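Sanity check

After download, print the first record. It should look like this:
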Amino acid sequence: MSTTAADIATWMTDIITTERRVTQTDMVDAIEAKFGSEWIYVNDNGHPSIDRAVLKEFRKAHRGAVNWDREDRAWYVEDEPTADTSAE
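Expected structure tokens:
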């Protein structure tokens, strides 16, 4: 069975949800190591990037639960809000 973009996207979502924050560089390295260099390309700025088909499936897979920090070039998930009972 060959790996699909959707398979990698689901894996990415699981990793980010578990780790809480993952940089693009670390994710590129992990995808290349686990799934192969065919899922990575060099973008216009000369940086290794994740295949566009994977990113498209990733947006579907996480359904808005994963955020992007443009400045840090990292994906992250928000901490679960906790109920503040100190005001009572």
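If your output differs, re-run the checksum step. Summary of this record's structure: DSSP finds three helices and five strands in the chain.
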